[in-house]
Predict the structure.
Amino acid sequence: MTAVFDPTPAPPAEILAVLSLLCPEVVRDIEQNWNAPVSDYARHLWRPVARPASGPAITARSILREVLQQRLSVVIQPEEIGKALEEFEHRPVIQSGLHCLLLMDRITFDALLLAWFGAIENGLSAFVAFMGTTMTMETIGREGPGWLDVGDDKVNLFGMGRHKLCRKSACAAGPVSLNKRALEAVGDETDASRWLGTLLASQDKVFGTAADALTALNEDLVADWDRSGMARPVFIDDRLAASAMARHLEHDGSLLSRLLIEPARRQRLEHALQEAASGPFGRFLPNATDYFWGIREQRVRKLVLKDGHLIEPDRPQGLSIPFERVQLRQALLDGVLLPNLFLMFLVLAILPRVRVVGGLRQIGYVALFHSILLAVLDENVPEERDLAAELQVRENAWGMRVIDEKTSVREQLAGLPEGALFPDLLRQYRLRTFAQTTDDLKLVRENARWRKIGKAAIKAT
């Protein structure tokens, strides 16, 4: 019998097999959209999500909705808040994986662009983007929130000395204002018409923190790049997650209060965390701090849980916070604590049944966080048993560096029409398939963590 040749390109089977080991939901997204325009993939990611059904999930969604409403009241008109919340209720999706950088950073720009596509293709008026803020102002040499990438050079965005940049964290460093002189010098050297004027419009403003400044500036850039206001990004960060976490800790009977505060439940949780860390996918897990980050002297501090207190290791004069519900809640409200990634994804995504869209490492650790929560639920408690049933469906998706342009944002913007940059890019990406845009999943094939998992899987068989 003559074999039938199928001319339709297919995704690399060996890559999908590796991804399936940890996040089969991501594989399904890829398979369904492989030969479709990447804009269709974005539409697929922002598809509806089933409403919460169990008690803990309903409570978590209610808390998230409340803190989002508070955030929306700052960034959009009062009459638009109800519409945005209802859209989120039907399509609860958060674009994560963004670091606290200006959109002139190409990876940040490309991720936000995909999220904008998803919102537009689903007719949304707003979409939520999470900006992580716990990193230092300079992460490595001339990179990080304190630097503006203009393609061929880096500009010290806030005019801080290098010793301050590497010692202060974006969410705590402040007050700050823009480095007007350095920005104006850029205007003399390069075509900066697509972004420089927008930044310089805020040259005389003083922002409470660097994170506040970067959020406000990114909002201004998007508004200028899409003057029609088709879909507005609502930027949130770790501080909103802290507010949500504080709400979860209001009552000693809440699920997170029980898991963290009751000794037997916390022991079970710590065992599940250790099991995941020592398992075949443990390299995905971030484990830099115990449950929370501390903030002291404009810097994010690692904490360890010892003798019933969260303390800074090897710093007797550092933070010391009793690991009790009331004290933790107050420290979160006071801005002294921020939830670590595990707790943050619990309150923003896994418990409230929100689809979270992130990078290649994130799709791994969110899947693990999901499994850890399942492992610590008590099947003898009806509401936890109901939650476990609900968690059989994971809302976890890849959306960071799906679009991965190699040219600088400045170069990408140079030939695009003013006021309609995003709409013009949407027209372009409607002509490029997911397979073409990802170069047949090249980024996954070259990712060190996923390659190691693939090799280990081959050895196991």
